[in-house]
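This section describes the prediction task in plain terms. A model, or a person checking by hand, is given the sequence of a single protein chain and must write out its three-dimensional structure as a string of tokens. No templates, partner chains or ligands are provided. The sample shown here is typical of the held-out split.
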Amino acid sequence: MSTSEPHTPDTAMLTILKSAALYRAGGMTWAQVAAKVNRKVETCEHWPLHYKAVWPALYAEASGQVWDEAEAEARHEARALLRQPDPRVRADAAGKIMMAAAKARPQRMEHSGPDGGPIHLYADLPGLVKPSEVPDGE
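The expected answer:
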């Protein structure tokens, strides 16, 4: 089999490739990846071509994980800014959070409720009470 033909990794190699994809998606160099997975740099550098049948999907999945983690960390830091003493910092953070939320809103609407339709927060989620259903004085 020539080096340009894709190879199918066995289970052990697939585990290594998943780790390598996550390290690469996280910004590591091939030298750093090689040290992490205990392989030669030259070997690791050839994996995207050598395992081209699986590498793109592994890397895409890993990239999604990395971005999900980065988004969660950024959200945490932005929310922490809402509690800063400087009102300008709080206002700036609030504005940026609201802009990000507005951009994410179409993605949130893709989720469906128990009946397959869109989720309507107060109507579809059990245990929540509509604001109009809260008696006055509570």
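For orientation: The chain has one domain: 11-109.
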